[in-house]
Amino acid sequence: MQNIKGAGVCTPLGYLASSVAADIKGNKKGKKDLTLLYSEVPFTLAAVFTKNTIKAAPLKHAIKALETNREFSAIVVNSGNANASTGKQGLEAVDTIVKAFEDELGTGEGSVLMGSTGTIGVKMPVEKVTSSVKELVDELDDANSHDFAAAIMTTDTVPKEIGVLVETPNGAYVVAGTTKGAGMIAPHMATMLCYITTDALIGADNLQNVLNNAVGESFNSITIDNDMSTNDTVFLMANGMSGIIPDIDQFQEAVNHVALELAKMIVKDGEGATKFVTIKVKNAQSEADAKKCAFAIANSPLVKTMFYGEDPNWGRLIATVGASGVAAVEEKIDICFDDLAYVKDGIIIDEKLEEKAAKIMKNDEIEITIDLNMGTFGKTVYTCDFSKEYVSINADYRT
Amino acid sequence: MQNIKGAGVCTPLGYLASSVAADIKGNKKGKKDLTLLYSEVPFTLAAVFTKNTIKAAPLKHAIKALETNREFSAIVVNSGNANASTGKQGLEAVDTIVKAFEDELGTGEGSVLMGSTGTIGVKMPVEKVTSSVKELVDELDDANSHDFAAAIMTTDTVPKEIGVLVETPNGAYVVAGTTKGAGMIAPHMATMLCYITTDALIGADNLQNVLNNAVGESFNSITIDNDMSTNDTVFLMANGMSGIIPDIDQFQEAVNHVALELAKMIVKDGEGATKFVTIKVKNAQSEADAKKCAFAIANSPLVKTMFYGEDPNWGRLIATVGASGVAAVEEKIDICFDDLAYVKDGIIIDEKLEEKAAKIMKNDEIEITIDLNMGTFGKTVYTCDFSKEYVSINADYRT
């Protein structure tokens, strides 16, 4: 497996994309906000959706479609309107939009799905989308990966793309992907759209298993502000155009890599994030405890502001372990900042270490290891700090 | 029951206080940070402590003392050092300090308890405390309530005090209290110290029941940043000096009132808070759901920044209901901003209402009602917005 420089969703064989500025949000900023991803032959689809009980209209539509069909030809994504909490009008909007694309593409009923991200509770401006259908279909091209990645962005500051080439005895195939995230990234993903494409040839059930495994260790292991949106979606599309039937372990590894790298890019571009923080919980009493403890630390505003302030205040870490409610004994807890053993048996090893720890806190990437010494279970999660910019972005989001 | 203007912990009969600037934190700011509260006759004590599994040394000491004794004469509180995660030295520090006060007061072994708030994991400077013992004892006076309230503050911007007079057929008694809070206020309280005094005459078990009831609806119904400290403590002290044996319901009502008003003061003075927000969840399917949903909304950084930004973005509220995992059906949810019916059956009643809702969001105090229409259970919690100042305070706390 090797990284392909400059790869994106159109790097695997047969995928074409196009994007336009449709002014979906109505702020006339001229940003491309409507994009189409099409495969020359239908792709098999695996999907993971938000666990939020309130789901946006495009998700309701896709979930229903997946009950009877696993092959599709295109997806259309807008980044100006969540089309969530929009009632019957929202569902009708999706129907009208996908029908317009199905007609123009000639791919038949039920062949197009939709993704949306943006403000919740605002009526979807259907006409702005349908009036762009012809232009989007006409401009489909395999050189448009980067435009696709840019068009799905909201508060993201950089497009997020990756692709890998997987060599096999019978030839090579590609797994590539793009994502948008920034805020609201949390367990079970949040306001996060991710589209992974491959030209490997693989059945629907295997594809879904691979995606489920990959999401658990990537998008479900990152957190920015512990919120979970109505619109989160990860799609894994496989159109088989390479003709390669992949070894399942090798394919899993490639999808894991793509998903994890994309997830890390989301954290690095978290709203207002200035630091990338890895929280490793070791030797918890159970898998559930390891996860609960790691996320409690990664989500604590006090811990996150401590990273922003570059303050090696380990007391906030140990207090959060206690607050998380997992099985823990103060006198057993060890803490490392990167490779620096800082706390042993619940107390600081030497107060002079604070200077070294303070130096580590100045880095852009920091790894904190909490060893509970209670059992054998571990969990690693990725998060970012909590900055004044986070508050600015979210206080002023709609203005 | 009537409010007593200017009341504090020394308003009930027999309570005296004193405070000094002992430079516990070592930043030489000259703030009074060490304070003594003493009762002329021993008081019966009821107490509630943090549920954090990591507890500060003074709490371990008090919990142990309460196993065999319910009567004490004094409490000493410092606001410069949490004395948490300080190991054996921390416990020995408490022993040394309380013994010094017991000797100077002449109240005997086991008669003094301690409270602490400040940075975790820093050694307690015992000498700075013991060298102030004589001065503190000499200066005890019933005119020092306000000094006591000020001396327990950390990032609080104002002292928090209240007192009520309760009239009975046999005469009157007083319930008064003070608290410090500001950050880390969450379910089960957090870096929160609260001292409630009364001169009513009441047994230890009744006193503890009254306190448990009061805390559930006050300190455990507020949240600032969902963190829970190692030091949280609520004490209810009853020295019986009024001679009045209170009617238990009337006494409960008075303690509830004092606790709730103090809890609200904490939220209003939340770190960086600019708004006081009441979240009312109605008609949940269970008591647990009502609580979970109300706290999920009150703790969501996206919701809290929305209040800071004065943006009536009800979509974030409904998305958080969904993310909370409680039994909810999108099409049944109604939302009011103060008295304004804004969302009905999961969608906005009229987009023109946004202007009215925006006006409500400009107020200093806002009440949000979420009606789930799923059952009969409700919960009200109090919170504040999330501002740039919150991040500043917590990023720079130790500097």
From TrEMBL, chains A, B:
GO MF entries: L-glutamate N-acetyltransferase activity; L-glutamate N-acetyltransferase activity, acting on acetyl-L-ornithine as donor
Residues with site note (Cleavage): 190-191
Location of this chain's protein in the cell: Cytoplasm
Major localization listed first in the record, in broad terms: cytoplasm
Binding positions (substrate): 154, 180, 191, 271, 394, 399
Gene Ontology cellular component terms for the protein in this record: cytoplasm
Enzyme class: transferase
Site (Involved in the stabilization of negative charge on the oxyanion by the formation of the oxyanion hole): 117-118
SUPFAM superfamilies: DmpA/ArgJ-like
Coiled-coil region(s): none
Protein's job: Catalyzes two activities which are involved in the cyclic version of arginine biosynthesis: the synthesis of N-acetylglutamate from glutamate and acetyl-CoA as the acetyl donor, and of ornithine by transacetylation between N(2)-acetylornithine and glutamate.
Record NCBIfam families: ArgJ (TIGR00120), PRK05388.1 (NF003802)
Protein name as catalogued: Arginine biosynthesis bifunctional protein ArgJ
Species this protein is from: Denitrovibrio acetiphilus (strain DSM 12809 / NBRC 114555 / N2460)
Gene: argJ
